[in-house]
Specification:
The protein is α/β, with parallel strands linked by helices. It contains six helices and seven strands. The longest helix has 19 residues, at 197-215.
Amino acid sequence: MINLKIFLLTAYCLLHTGYCYDLTIARLKYGGGGDWYNDPSMIPNLSCELNKRTTVKVNPEQVEIAIKDEGLFDYPFIFLTGHGNIKFSDYEVERLREYLIKGGFLYADDDYGMDEYFRRELRRVFPGLEFEEIPFTHPIYHSFYDFSAGLPKIHKHSGKPPKGYGIFYQERLVMFYTYETNISDGWADAWVHNDSQDKREEAFKMGVNIVMYVLTQ
């Protein structure tokens, strides 16, 4: 069966650009003062690895999108990271909820310091739902590479074990949140954080898993 998200993105790309990508990863812009824009090499590098390792054709250029932007619904996968405060307007809360319940997916990676603010805002988006820790048996840990022991630890941060949390809406995982791991820093150019090649490999593998999980659901 053809995956509906890939089919729709293929049709959109052909119609609007004349070139076909199965996926463009969009980075989410937000207010509040947190640096949503940090490490701009992350998404292009992850996209490059997806193109090398899978048969999915990923746009190598990062798109930056705000919740209020007209084109939000053109991107089935949005990525959020940063340090510090995150603040959504009431309109953004309602629109992000609509995006997620209509098939969109949000991957958020705590780049240290955004945890309390991100949780606060997502409680506004889904006031009746709770963050659930995702068990290691969940397909997101096995969609392409096997992470039977859960998330890799890329950066020390507070020294706590890495955790993966999610929000489920009508039994569908609509948001995946990684905490105390900082996977996306491992996607940045090697000189940025001086991560070892082994750490960067773990980060890319888990990034591939997250994307492939979303595209095959």
